[in-house]
Write a structure and sequence with these properties.
By secondary structure, the protein is α/β, with parallel strands linked by helices. It folds into two domains: 192 residues, Rossmann fold (3-Layer(aba) Sandwich), CATH 3.40.50.720; 207 residues, 3-Layer(bba) Sandwich (FAD/NAD(P)-binding domain). It has 17 helices and 18 strands. The protein has a seven-stranded mixed beta sheet with strand order 3-2-1-4-18-17-16, with helices on both faces. Strands 6-14-7-8-10-9 form a six-stranded parallel beta sheet. It has a three-stranded antiparallel beta sheet with strand order 11-12-13, with no helix packed on it. A hairpin with a 5-residue loop joins strand 12 and strand 13. It is globular, with a radius of gyration of 24 Å. The chain starts with 8 loop residues before the first strand and ends with a helix. The structure holds flavin-adenine dinucleotide. Keywords: FAD, Flavoprotein, NADP, Oxidoreductase. Its cofactor is FAD. Its EC number is 1.18.1.2.
Length: 452
């Protein structure tokens, strides 16, 4: 084997979601001789595109095709089933790579900060279940006739839609048998979505909102109480075109006559959750307080309290990144502190050769496309630093990295492995007249990817 050129830039990217893969793409397109290893804790790449985007959004999941082309590039290697902080530390990576880019995203749920929170489910956990994430239990309790979802973003809509739709409506997607059976056992008829503020501030995407209305089994009811827009709200929608479109759609729906579909999604505005009541069996009541605008976009309580009789409460108020071993972490903002992607230590000085991109860099907001521009900034700074510092890694051969993992008995799932798993999932789909059926357990994923 020809030895790697001593000047070839060696980069490790930790996290094989869109942010990490776009970073690899930008590196390979730059005017430098580079080789990139993407270390991913799961046996499959693509992060939240595979394990966050809802199964009934196949068009968005198509992005994996473009991401897969990056992974197939000769200067890019996928090292899946490798967990940073468990299988490898930052100091280890330093020995093999001139630069390390952390792109580990966000997986935890933010809290509501109200009493009784322990009786609620985090949206991220539910999303991981219906998207067949291999590290979550395969069963999920869906025996609540009435459910509350707190939040007014697209994740709240995803959760509400999956809770309201029938299992058979979801059967055209890539959900595996355990998710289908779980959804089939569902007894939910009413999903109540709660927003603290008025409709002018709803953060839904216009298309996601309109899509709610497309199910033949699900009716959307926008409740007129609290459906008010003050002067600040009018100014706000004047500045935010998408939110104006959302408001127009909601205004068309508010107060319309029900048509009698078997499942309902209720949208409630100006209702702030204040407490979740429950016991060992989970939630029994969500208590909310009606709010009114104070004129600057925020709201205050009116003292008018409502107890909603629900048997499950989901928090969909945002994701949260978690700290990584060996790296500074800003717990308030839940990001790795950085300046344009250069990781900063506790004194605010750059940590040499260490970068972040994606949700761990700027927090869990924004769509897949945003991770591309994000990666461009980080990689721009990385390349400038690398040009100035020159090579720093002492063990520069890809084989050195392979030997490291082999010595530690890490069962690395490479790109070839992913291609075999991918083909296996497509074949499972063909057998059922679907495009794909996901394998939802780690052992099964690893087995399917091995050469038989
Ligand atoms: C429920 C949900 C639905 C969404 N739907 C849409 C949508 O429809 N359209 C859209 O454009 N955007 C959508 N988004 C947003 C989109 O998913 C994000 O913008 C994007 O995935 C963020 O990319 P990322 O690479 O930073 O993080 P992630 O996608 O989270 O990728 C991070 C990767 O790092 C890996 N990782 C984590 N820790 C480690 C470790 N210690 N070692 C190794 N690897 C590790 C993870 O396994 C993961 O693969 C959605 C997000 C959510 C939460």
């Amino acid at each position: 084997m020809t030895p790697t050129s001593p000047t070839k830039l060696r980069v490790a990217i930790v996290g094989g979601g869109p942010a990490g893969i776009y970073a690899a793409d930008i590196l390979t397109k730059a005017d430098v001789d580079v080789s990139v290893d993407i270390l991913e804790r799961l046996p499959a790449p693509f992060g939240l595109v595979r394990y966050g985007v809802a199964p009934d959004h196949p068009r968005i999941k198509e992005i994996v095709k473009a991401l897969q082309r990056v992974l197939a590039k000769p200067d890019v290697r996928l090292l899946g089933n490798v967990e940073y902080g468990v299988d490898v530390k930052l100091e280890d990576l330093r020995a093999y790579y001139d630069a390390v880019v952390i792109a580990t995203g966000a997986r935890a749920d933010r809290d509501l900060g109200i009493p009784g929170e322990e009786h609620s489910h985090g949206a991220a956990d539910f999303v991981s279940w219906y998207d067949a994430h291999p590290d979550v239990p395969q069963s999920w309790p869906l025996d609540a006739p009435s459910v509350a979802v707190v939040g007014v973003g697209n994740v709240a809509l995803d959760v509400a839609r999956v809770l309201a739709k029938t299992a058979d409506e979801m059967l055209t997607t890539d959900i595996p048998a355990h998710v289908y059976e779980g959804l089939r056992a569902k007894t939910t008829t009413d999903v109540h979505v709660f927003a603290r503020r008025g409709p002018a501030y709803a953060k839904f995407s216009p298309m996601e909102l309109r899509e709610l209305n497309h199910s033949p089994k699900v009716e959307v009811i926008v409740h007129p109480e609290g459906f008010d827009v003050d002067d600040h709200g009018m100014e706000h929608i004047g500045r935010h075109k998408a939110q104006k479109m959302v408001l127009d759609t909601l205004a068309n729906w508010v107060g319309r006559d029900p048509v009698g579909k078997p499942h309902r999604i209720h949208l409630h505005f100006a209702e702030a959750p204040t407490e979740i009541l429950g016991g060992a069996g989970g939630a029994t009541t969500l208590r909310t307080e009606r709010t009114r605008p104070v004129g600057d976009g925020t709201v205050e309580g009116t003292g008018q309290v409502t107890n909603w009789d629900v048997q499950a409460v989901y928090r969909a108020v945002g994701y949260r990144s978690t700290a990584l071993p060996g790296l500074p972490f800003d717990d308030r903002a839940a990001v790795v502190p950085n300046d344009g992607g250069r990781v900063l230590d506790l004194d605010g000085d750059p940590v040499a050769g260490t970068y972040v991109t994606g949700w761990i860099k700027r927090g869990p907001v924004g769509l897949i496309g945003h991770t591309k521009s994000d990666a461009a900034e980080t990689i721009g700074n990385l390349l400038a630093d690398a040009a100035a510092a020159g090579p720093t890694a002492v063990l520069r051969e890809p084989g050195d990295v392979d030997a490291y993992f082999a010595e530690r008995h890490v069962d690395v799932a490479t790109f070839d492995h992913w291609e075999r798993l991918d083909q296996h999932e497509v074949a499972l789909g063909v057998a059922e007249g679907r495009e794909r059926v996901k394998v939802g357990d780690r052992a099964g994923m690893l087995r399917a990817g091995r050469v038989s």
